[in-house]
Amino acid sequence: MSWAFLRDLLSGVNKYSTGIGRIWVAVVFIFHLLVYVAAAENIWKHEHDEFECNIKQPGCENVCFDHFFPVSHIRLWALQLIVVSTPSLLVVFHVAYRENREKHHNQKLYKNPGMIDGGLLCTYLISLILKTGLEIVFLVMFYKLYNGFKIPRLVKCDIKPCPNTVDCFISKPTEKMIFLCFLVATSCLCIVLNLGELSYLVFKYSIKYYLKRHVKKQQ
């Protein structure tokens, strides 16, 4: 899978972000995207083939694997990366709209089309709320699908066509557990950064608006 489009998207958003937003882009790019492509993808690459049960009943291993891993970790992470980065397109589209509007009217309508103010501020805040909400949704989804943030060494399965309760073994559970904890911690860090940036912008522009009103009253 090529991740060039996601890299270009994050690079484009970086131009219009605050300092905290640039840290978020760096965290997503380095600790999510690069770690996923360089290491995590290879660790889970043959997870189905390496899943073994102590019985050779036809269909038993497939049914047990599907029960304990209804969605592949690695595919869910890929989906998370794409979905969580998508709200940033709102900011890019809004800036593009401003630039096209200036071209259409053939005059300078904004001090800087990429400056976070007015309508673009609302779009930016909405994108932060969406990114935070989506990160939380995916963390909850992980927790519910896999009964917690853990990789067991052994799972017991008694689903038909298995004739009785069988032991099934997951390959490289310790290595997978380390990367799982790392990626969950990275998602939590992204949530903290998004909430921090959201609070910073709301506080900054609330103070700015209050001072502006205060000055008008004085005049």
From TrEMBL:
GO terms assigned for molecular function: gap junction channel activity
Cell compartment(s), UniProt: Cell junction, Gap junction; Cell membrane
Pfam families named in the record: Connexin
Keywords: Cell junction, Cell membrane, Gap junction, Membrane, Transmembrane, Transmembrane helix
TM region positions: 21-39, 77-97, 118-143, 177-203
GO cellular component, one term: connexin complex
Keyword Cell membrane: yes
Family per similarity comment: Belongs to the connexin family.
Protein name: Gap junction protein
Organism, as annotated: Pomatorhinus ruficollis (streak-breasted scimitar babbler)
Lineage: Eukaryota, Metazoa, Chordata, Craniata, Vertebrata
Gene transcribed to yield this protein: Gjb7
